[in-house]
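Lab meeting notes turned into a lecture example. A postdoc, R.K., suggested we walk through two folding results consecutively so the class can see how the record format repeats. The first protein's sequence and structure tokens come next.
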Amino acid sequence: MSTAPEIAALLEEYEFLDADDRYRLLIDLGRALEPMPDALKTDATLVRGCSASVWVYPTRLPDGRLHFLADSNAAITKGIIALVLASVQDHAPADILATDITATLAPFDLSRQLSSNRTQGIPNMIALIRETAARLA
């Protein structure tokens, strides 16, 4: 299992980059995601409302923490979901519910960096993660 990069370290790196390099960083984050088996890319794991296809599959670690597998058919969208997961990956459901993911991502100012088509699905990704955490808390 891969360990998600620390969100603060990502932000520190992100802030020093120009727009093109920020875009590349997001793509690299997506490439670094743990592979999601094709068998898990189903209608049940599809995040609705994204311009690209995005799948998120929650798993529960033996100690109860949540680990998410995710993928997208678009490189930048895969990077966005990797960034979202960096704030909650391998946390307890109660900790995920206590995390304001939107506020955590706000300093990245994705709506200014990317087109609205690329960012429109972020609230749905966050909602799915929070719903999963609430169900398993």
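The second example is placed directly after the first for contrast:
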Amino acid sequence: MPGAPGPRRRVRRRDRHGRGLRGRLVPPGVPLYRTRAQQFDDMVLDAVARLEPRWEAELAHVEFAVQEVPEAEELADDSSPLPLARVVPGSADPRNPGRPATPARIVVYRRPLMARAEDDDELSDLVFGVVVEEFASVLGLDPETIDPGYREGFD
């Protein structure tokens, strides 16, 4: 027939490798929706929150950050183990010596910590131990002073 439409092309509804549809399986806002990186960030925040009741004033002068892996210059020495975190010292405010111009920063490395833990509970404990150690080094105190339940050799 003239002017009649040609045969319709069939639309495929799944990918060509047969793995099924890609996309969200869980709606946003559900706890399962959070990525592993977001869950790790929450573990760091929980570790800081555990220290807050006793060390609130000192924590006000410390920033916390999460980074995937250490920078290349931190890995220059092959004989040392892979760092789990680092402290970036702050600087004092020349006009007000009691307050820092830039606060100290504790950077926690996500991938090295995740590689050492077998499950989320162990990872949470490991993150808390690293946060306690680094916070203790910022204050120049022993980790057991920061958290009496802290135990050496958590790694």
